[in-house]
Specification:
single chain, 480 residues, mainly beta, Neuraminidase, 2 domains, 5-stranded mixed β-sheet, 29% strand
Length: 480
């Protein structure tokens, strides 16, 4: 059985290091002095619990406004000539972050100014000047004569930040969005494992290190962190060669750590790291990982309905049970958990499995194309999973893969801008039409940089707002 530990590099997380692995380095994000009025030591106030977004990101709206349009004299604002807004409702997707982002028009929606100032209006065509009795109307986006501007593409860019990052470089850490802040816990560089907690404010671009209270938190890597209300539940991980099955709880309002104690006769999951955890109803559902000796494919659920009496239960599943693996990803879509990729320590996998958490039946999805990945990230954006980075069996990938959750097929998109170097063991989080990427490792360098994939004007924003994953129509027929 595999230990999910690389030979000759026992202190490193990566599983596969081919001798021909591409060695790429990253431009280091420059830490800048704070702008005037902002102190590097000043803690950015937190948004109150009433505004907490948590793990569920509500679908917002995109608006088009007449704010950027010149005044149109003598033209009444009727439904045929005013800019309108469109609102999409439902599902986990993008939220319009603040008033600074709303009501931004595109150039194709702006009327073309009349060059002849004597007409005091807008021409609909070159023939409109010959009409002397009818009022001139603005050229509308729906007009056949208006050439529509192409939809903007996704755009990568490196970020500069203020303050000091939690460590010079991190991999196998966790990042969890709480309000407008990304809470970073644990991780490791090339020498040592970090036991600290920090947050990155996505509005001010400020790093702050958190002084925690309560029990002393151990150094961890390859653990999971899940937001439940205003508390972060941390499970598994460790500093090697042994790993943990402890549960830690960090209160994000008091910054106090606690560790629940379980009854001696209660079943407990084996220690592990490189696993996944999703929140489903009152359970934290844990799948797979490795314990330092072997890879795992079991499913455990932590019942958190009673905060004073947490309890573990192993869920027996059936169907197309995945092979034992770690360094995969898992996303909860409704009552189904989508598991992609991973490794048993010998190879990287390309399989997509769906676990129905109501029936506890696994289904192997038959995708037309295959993409091997381990140590990647998978971020839900509407009806897509954005898979970024990871090892493909040959090198650390730079591409962005999209798994369409409606037809369960892969799409590949090429963002514009400056691409981050290929990496794995990083963090990627969606917040207000931006995916933030932090840290990671490429087999040679542990990164301390920060990148943003901007989706705000992208053609790939959610257009399917209500959908259900139907893996049964795409399952592998094993009888063939």
């Amino acid at each position: 059985m595999d230990s999910l530990v690389t030979p000759n590099q026992p202190n490193l997380d990566p599983v596969i290091y081919p001798s021909h692995l591409a060695q790429t380095t990253s431009p280091i994000s420059q830490s800048r002095d704070p702008p005037e009025g902002i102190s590097a030591e000043t803690e950015v106030p937190s948004i109150g619990p009433g505004k907490r977004k948590g793990a569920q990101i509500a679908l917002g709206s995109t608006s088009v406004s007449t704010r950027h349009l010149p005044t149109i004299p003598n033209v009444p604002e009727t439904p045929t000539n005013i800019a309108t807004s469109s609102t999409v409702d439902g599902g986990n997707a993008l939220e319009e972050s603040s008033s600074r982002r709303k009501r931004a028009g595109t150039r194709s929606e702006r009327p073309h100014l009349q060059s002849n100032t004597e007409s005091k209006g807008y021409r609909t065509s070159s023939k409109s000047s010959s009409v002397n009795s009818k009022p001139l109307e603005p050229r509308l986006p729906a007009s056949k004569e208006v050439v529509r501007a192409p939809a903007s593409l996704m755009y990568f860019s490196p970020m500069s930040f203020y303050g000091r990052p939690p460590n010079q470089a991190l991999r196998a850490h966790t990042g969890t969005l709480v309000d407008d802040r990304i809470w970073v816990i644990g991780g490791v560089d090339k020498q040592s494992c970090w036991r600290g907690v920090a947050w990155f404010d996505t509005e001010s671009y400020m790093w702050s290190t958190i002084e925690t209270q309560g029990e002393r938190f151990p150094p961890l890597r390859a653990h999971t962190t899940t937001l439940v209300g205003d508390k972060l539940f941390i499970f598994g991980g460790g500093d090697g060669p042994s790993y943990s099955n402890d549960v830690w709880i960090l209160d994000t309002t008091t910054h106090c750590f606690s560790r629940p104690v379980f009854k001696s006769d209660m079943p407990l999951p084996p220690p592990r790291r490189a696993h996944t955890t999703v929140l489903y109803r009152q359970w934290l559902v844990v799948f797979g990982g490795g314990n330092g000796q072997a890879a795992l494919n079991d499913v455990w659920a932590l019942d958190i309905s009673d905060p004073t009496n947490l309890s573990w239960e192993e869920w027996k599943t059936r169907g197309d049970i995945p092979q034992k693996k770690g360094y995969h990803t898992a996303n909860l879509i409704g009552h189904k958990m989508i598991v992609f990729g991973g490794s048993d320590g010998h190879a990287s996998f390309a399989d997509v499995h769906v676990l129905d958490l109501q029936t506890r039946i696994w289904t192997l999805v038959n995708t037309y194309t295959k993409h091997n990945r381990l140590s990647h990230t998978s971020t839900q954006v509407g009806s897509y999973l954005f898979v970024m980075g990871g090892h493909n069996g040959q090198s650390y990938a730079q591409d962005v893969l999209l798994l369409n959750l409606v037809n369960l097929e892969w799409e590949t998109k090429i963002p514009q801008g400056v691409h981050p170097p290929g990496r794995g063991y990083h963090v990627a989080l969606l917040h207000d039409a931006r995916i933030f990427i932090s840290g990671g490792y490429n087999g040679d360098t542990v990164f301390d940089d920060f990148w943003v994939l901007d989706l705000s004007a992208s053609a790939y924003l959610p257009q399917v707002t209500t959908f259900e994953v139907d893996e049964t129509t795409h399952s592998v027929n094993k009888s063939q």
